[in-house]
Design brief:
The complex is a heterodimer.
Chain A: E1 6-11, H1 14-18, H2 21-34, E2 41-46, E3 58-61, E4 65-67, H3 75-84, H4 110-113, H5 132-137, H6 142-150, H7 153-163, H8 175-184, E5 191-196, H9 205-212, H10 214-228, E6 232-238, H11 242-257, E7 273-279, H12 288-296, E8 319-323, H13 324-336, H14 338-342, E9 352-359, E10 365-370, H15 375-382, E11 392-397, E12 403-406, H16 416-422, E13 430-435, H17 440-454, H18 460-477, H19 485-499, H20 503-507, H21 510-518, H22 520-529, E14 543-545, H23 554-558, E15 564-565, E16 573-574, H24 584-588, E17 594-596
Parallel strand pairs in A: 1-2, 5-6, 5-8, 6-7, 9-13
Antiparallel strand pairs in A: 1-3, 3-4, 9-10, 11-12, 11-13, 14-17, 15-16
Chain B: H1 4-21, E1 28-33, H2 36-40, H3 43-55, E2 61-66, E3 78-82, E4 88-90, H4 95-106
Parallel strand pairs in B: 1-2
Antiparallel strand pairs in B: 1-3, 3-4
Helix pairs in contact in B: 3-4
The chains are: A alpha/beta, B alpha+beta.
């Protein structure tokens, strides 16, 4: 980090806001502008830092200087003396290192964390996930205690509803409404389920969240159980996540030992316990009705809805099912309040979203940003741009159910509606950056191959339709595309979306349809010109040996079909009729003499 | 009869004192990333190096694991927090780097700049 660049964190907890922290930000911006520091100083907000009595709190990093009781009149001095001259102002410094203040340590690497806001991941990478003491020390289980002590179940639901929280599994259904519907059901027993069946290729949000802070999920589920009147919770997690399973198991056992799960939690009348069910790794089991069937011991297949699980769920009983990230938001909403939560995000999507940033980007990582952050900010500011000076081509959100967005959508602010409008979806949080070296037809084929393979086979449109689409796509990438293929893909895709039983089929054509919409020219080049501009489709690439050839013979020896000939120390020749385009010569040549054309 | 809220506050105070009892107030605290991805990148070996050093008498260091810090391409990550100083995060730590972090940073207070994540 540049020695003179600072990151300032203003506490944006309710108490600090009441004491005027919001006004500080405005004055601070004004002062930074006056001193020409806007480029070198970034301002971030944090949730309640737990030092309410000394608010408003301001933290200056690097240096980890915590200022308390900051007023507007202090700002010019802070800017002039600390930010310009590097001298912290002693009279404002709070010399305390509370355990629960630890979490702004994550802001150490300011370039990566500068635009992030960590609510669900607030403890992730901060605490020892296998220590309930660590979690308790950071106000762990206080939200649960607050709900049981001071709130009726109706008030808890009202708070969640007011917060504007929406399902983080992908579809974005208002969480509060789901809770209300389940609470309204008269039949008992009721169940609470945590959907941790994360299956999108390239996605690892839920795994990391559970591995990094399992107690948050446990606490969220217990609050949900209290709100809807359930006594049993089930975490459905895939068996491929052994460490996450171990840690959530440990968390449940520790919580039980502390009287935070089990009979009469914290001496109250509320009893709640959690079991773990392992999934065998079928993608369709992330769909709620298939997941419920799987827990029941039946084959993991979806069924038509309604009735929704809120009415007829696990073992036919009313069931509240939410995703890991949704649950992790609940304790924060109860502790810091819906009013605070509502200040984050956009008009229709409140709070933050976790993304697994992967693909052709410098800083791959697990990130959490406020809704309304643009794709450009994520890819270039947090992700650090595209490596090796390559050109950005597309960003894929929502995994196999989502779409590929080209450059003109980079300034799209992320929320459920704007991503849908752009032709993709929020999804559960997979985000894969694609550069010029990837072929969009091939990318679409990859995702469709996945969904086709994972289709459970119950309904015909999904089972047969995805298979036919995959055949057409494979043909196109092999240079056997025919006129009319694009139209056929569009027609098939439309039918599958309309007629499939569950979300898997209804969204499976999205990667294909969005690439046709945004990269139609690439499809046409494959079909009509038999060309792949990214040189990624093996069958559409041919190899040529150029002038740089020194005649070492390495390519000749490695060629499986003896298509290369030539005598030592003279330029070799490649017989295009014999060549099977396996690319082994290209990978072997040390002299960059072989070119893809 | 204390309310659940009063009980949890008591539990928190107890938890804090237990953590302090484990040496949290040591001059230096050290966190090793131990999520699946970090372990796949080799963080178990790194953790072992630190554990060994502690068992062989490295004092005044509070050693703990932590979950995913989000820096996938820089794993395994190790964080050193010293009272009153800016936290230091090291990236791509292997056994050798871990040993050097012990010798140079933990024992002699030198921040090994070339490995710091900024």
């Amino acid at each position: 980090m540049d020695a003179t660049s600072y990151r300032i964190i203003l506490c944006d907890g309710t108490s600090c806001i009441n004491k005027g922290s919001r006004k500080l930000a405005a004055v601070l911006r004004e002062q930074l502008d006056k001193h020409g520091l806007t480029d070198r100083v970034t301002i971030g907000l944090s949730g309640c830092l737990g030092m309410c009595e000394k608010g408003p709190i301001m933290v200056v990093n690097p240096g980890y200087t915590i200022y308390g009781s900051v007023t507007e009149n202090d700002i010019p001095q802070i800017v002039e003396e600390h930010l310009v001259n590097g001298d912290p102002i002693a009279r404002l410094v709070i010399q305390e290192d509370h355990l629960y203040n630890r979490f702004f340590r994550v802001f150490g690497d300011a370039k990566f964390f500068g635009k992030q806001m960590r609510i669900t991941l607030r403890n992730c990478g901060i605490i020892d996930p296998e220590s309930i003491d660590d979690y308790l020390s950071l106000r762990g289980y206080e939200a649960l205690a607050k709900a049981i002590t001071d709130m009726t179940p109706e008030q808890v639901i009202a708070e969640v509803e007011k917060s504007g929280l929406r399902g983080r599994g992908g579809a974005g259904f208002p969480t509060g409404r789901k809770w209300k519907l389940t609470a309204a059901e008269k039949r008992t027993p009721k169940y609470v389920i945590c959907n941790a069946d994360e299956g999108d290729p390239g996605a690892f949000m839920d795994r990391s969240a559970i591995e990094g802070d399992p107690h948050t999920v446990v606490e969220g589920m217990a609050i949900g159980g209290y709100a809807i009147g359930a006594q049993t919770g089930v975490v459905y997690i895939r068996a491929e996540y052994p460490l996450a399973i171990k840690r959530i198991k440990r968390a449940i056992e520790d919580a039980r030992a502390h009287g935070l799960l089990g009979k009469n939690i914290l001496g109250s009348n509320f009893s709640f316990d959690i079991e773990i069910r392992l999934g065998a790794g079928a993608f369709v089991c992330g769909e709620e009705t298939a997941l419920i069937h799987s827990i029941e011991g039946a084959r993991g297949m979806p069924r038509p809805r309604p009735p929704y699980p809120a009415a007829v769920g696990l073992f036919g009983q009313p069931t509240l099912i939410n995703n890991v990230e949704t649950w992790a938001n609940v304790p924060v909403i109860i502790l810091d309040g819906a009013n605070w939560f509502r200040t984050i995000g956009t008009e229709t999507s409140k709070g933050t979203k976790v993304f697994a940033l992967a693909g052709k980007v410098v800083n791959t990582g697990l990130i959490e940003v406020p809704m309304g952050t643009t794709l450009r900010e994520i890819i270039y500011d947090i992700g650090g741009g595209i490596p090796f000076g390559k050109r950005f081509k597309s960003v894929q959100t929502g995994g196999p159910s989502g779409g590929c967005l080209p450059e003109q959508y980079l300034d799209t602010p992320i929320d459920y509606e704007s991503l849908a409008k752009a032709g993709s979806i929020m999804g559960s949080g997979g985000m894969i950056v694609i550069d010029e070296d990837s072929c969009m037809v091939d990318v679409a084929r990859f995702f469709l191959e996945f969904t086709q393979d994972e289709s459970c086979g119950k309904c015909t449109p999904c089972r047969e339709g995805t298979k036919r689409m995959l055949e057409i796509l494979t043909r196109i990438t092999e240079g056997k595309g025919r006129p009319g293929d694009i139209e056929n893909l569009e027609r098939l895709g439309g039918m599958i979306k309309k007629a499939s039983l569950c979300g898997l089929g209804q969204s499976a054509p999205n990667p294909v349809l969005s690439t046709i919409k945004n990269f139609r020219q690439e499809y046409e080049e494959h079909i009509h010109d038999k060309k792949c501009r990214a040189k990624a489709c093996k069958r559409l690439v041919s190899y040529e040996i150029g002038e740089k050839c020194v005649g070492c013979g390495a390519c000749r020896r490695v060629c499986p079909v003896n298509a290369i000939s030539g005598s030592p120390k003279s330029r070799h020749l490649l017989d295009q009729n014999k060549c099977v385009r396996c690319g082994m010569c290209f990978n072997t040549c040390k002299f960059e003499a072989i070119a893809k054309v | 009869m204390p309310t659940p809220l009063e009980l949890i506050k008591k539990k928190r105070a107890e938890a804090v004192s237990r953590i302090i009892g484990k040496g949290y107030l040591s001059t230096k605290r050290e966190y090793v990333g131990m999520a699946t991805c970090e372990i796949a990148a080799g963080s178990k070996d790194v953790m072992e190096v630190f554990q060994k050093a502690v068992s062989r008498g490295l004092t005044d260091v509070y050693l703990s694991q932590k979950g995913c810090a989000g820096r996938c391409n820089l794993e395994p990550t190790v964080e050193v927090i010293e009272a009153g100083k800016s936290p230091v995060k090291y990236g791509r730590v292997d056994k050798d780097r871990a040993q050097q972090i012990i010798e140079r940073h933990l024992k002699n207070g030198e921040i090994i700049k070339e490995w710091v994540i900024d």
